[in-house]
Amino acid sequence: MIMGSNVALADLSDDIGSVIVSLGWVSPTGEGDADVSVLLLDANGKVRSDGDFYFYNHPVAADGSVQLLGKTPTADGSEDRISFDLTAVPAGIDRIVVAASRYGEARFGELEDVRITLADAAGESLLRFAVDDAGSVTAVIFGELYRRGEGWKFRAVGQGYETGLAGLATDFGVDIEDDAATEAEAALDGDAADEQADAADRAPAGEPTGQVPLEAVPAPRRPEAEAGEPRKPATRPRTAKKKVTLPRTVKKTLAENDSWRQARLFPVSALKSDRDREMRATSVLLSVMAQVPEFSRRLTAGFGAPAGRMETFTEVSLPHGDTPRRPDGVIRVERAGKLWTALVETKTNGNVLKADQVQAYMDIAARRGYEAVITLTNDVALEGSPLVDVKIDKRRKHKVALWHLSWAEVAHQAQLLIRHEGVGNAAHAWLLQELLHYLQHENSGCHGFQNMGPAWVPVRNGIDDETLCQGDARALEVVENWERLIRQVCLRLGGELGQKVLPVQRAKRGTDPKERRARLADQLCLDGRLQAELRIDGTPGVLTVGADLRTGKLRTGIAVPAPEQGYPLSRAKRLVRLLAEAPADLHIETLVDGESGGPRGTLERLRPEPADLLPKDNARITGFLLSLLKSMGSGRGNAETGFIRSVDDAVHRFYTTVVVHLDTPTTRRTPSKERAAAG
């Protein structure tokens, strides 16, 4: 589409009751990002109330018409997805505006391939609009859905705002207080405050507004310049009903000793076979989905399911030739007299999907007019690398979508709700807690990606004896499984923190994912290393993870930019002071302008002599590289001595002992509407 053009959704697909809108962009540095927002407008072009404004702190409409699904990794970065149930949009809403905004000094002109796509309920892409030459704007209206008669149309807008999210929202009638002050604060250079902090003792670490930290993973440290700032009281009511989360501390048990085991809603100990595990896991999950609508919408909105009354079923017999088929489960949603139905096929432990079985369910769904088949396993689906190949008869008018969920994604969404974002009542929180306890039990078989595959040992041996050649298919298998592992690490850490954690892709725009993985596989054959980068909201840089298969070492690190003002020695002293509780074996390297590297040493050696971090030739310090080394697990599985467990532990240790003590970036400000919603 081109700017200003429009199209009727009914002309593109027969299945547009629910649509998925995706906003995407490519960051050349791997660190650029933006936040999506949605505004529901009446016939006057204004929101009816502030509740019609959906953003990162108000992501879900109570009627299910709008749900911000969060970010999904793609071949060249990530994209934000939004689910719209157009049948649930209130009659008083005439237009739906879809926008995104950047924060601080960031501009959309720094991003590439800025675009919006729209897909129908079956996942088929219907349209694409590229926003070219975004320039210096900080917010962009990508497009809008609007009523025309009994149907809906989409218009490609591409309008930019230099005043950011505040200016955009205000134009449409959203009451955002103190935005002028907020923008002024964001424009101020925080280096002066940092310089004052150099001369003072380190302030106590605080917690970000609205976040409930877990004891296992501390919350990121607030900048010292902000630690003592009084928080302005909210003068307006919350935009949404207060949600229920689990308490921070566990109540003291009434058990006499540790041998007393707490009664659980979903027992695990009686499971003896994989078939038992599959049947129990399916029943447990689907029953919780039927009772906790916030959770079920998280899992099904992205699959085109409408917001409505949900019922779930297990072991349903469906005719298929001479032999009836029994899918593990069925999900059915009723909305305005219409039904949405999905068949569910579940696997636990390392069991893989069978192509003929999935194919049979796709054929059954097509014949019976069902909308989707959902596969649920411990594996992680990658773009361009499907878990199972099925044939779709394109001659059929009725389309069936094939979707995949990993058990790690299920646990991630449950943890986000009960630990951070909250659910409607305490009973729902308790149900999700019981589900999470079941999934994490050692006998459930729902532990997520847990095997690097049969190629892992041969590839390691080939690297050791230098016999692994470029083009070896086994190296490509290891690279794909490494990508799956990193995505699962992101899910686990993001669930614990309640923040976005995404893998960084530095591929060029339009790069085919298969070609990118093939290049990485050839690089693995040459240097014996696997590399990955994670972007974590609230951290001053990208967290790197590297596995050296030659030396058997894992390296986790982060590059911290140096303040532009202040004396070099004060910067070094301040860094050492921030890392007072970090491990003594932490490596610190000074990054110097125009050179490959500066002075380096362990934190233990640098604590008494921070001046050792200063370059001898007075070169300009651009930052500091912090890294930790640990031994790599050798086994391909998820055992204590396995590679997967060692990577998970390395990332967890580096974040909790190093990253958490660093200053969080001060460029992103919290709008007053978010403060009001947080209460």
Task: Describe, in plain words, how this protein is organized in 3D.
There is one protein chain. This protein has 679 residues and is of the alpha+beta class. The longest helix is centred in the C-terminal third of the chain and has 25 residues, at 473-497. 27% of the residues lie in helices and 24% in strands. It has helices at 164-171, 179-187, 191-198, 224-227, 274-291, 293-300, 355-368, 407-421, 426-440, 456-464, 473-497, 513-527, 568-578, 603-606, 643-657, 672-678; strands spanning 6-8, 18-26, 35-41, 53-54, 66-74, 77-85, 95-101, 112-119, 125-130, 139-148, 151-161, 309-314, 329-335, 338-346, 372-377, 401-406, 501-503, 529-536, 543-548, 553-561, 587-592, 600-602, 621-631. The protein starts with 5 loop residues before the first strand and ends with a helix.
From the spread of the alpha carbons, the general shape counts as: globular
* Overall strand count: 23
Mean pLDDT: 84
Q: Cα-atom Rg, whole angstroms?
A: 26 Å
Please list the strands of the largest sheet in the order they lie side by side: 17-18-19-20-23-21-22
Structural class: alpha+beta
Count of alpha/pi helices? 16
N-end to C-end Cα span = 42 Å
**Percentage of β-strand residues:** 15-25%
Low-pLDDT windows of residues? 178-240, 667-679
Q: Helical content, roughly?
A: 25-40%
Largest sheet: 7 strands, antiparallel
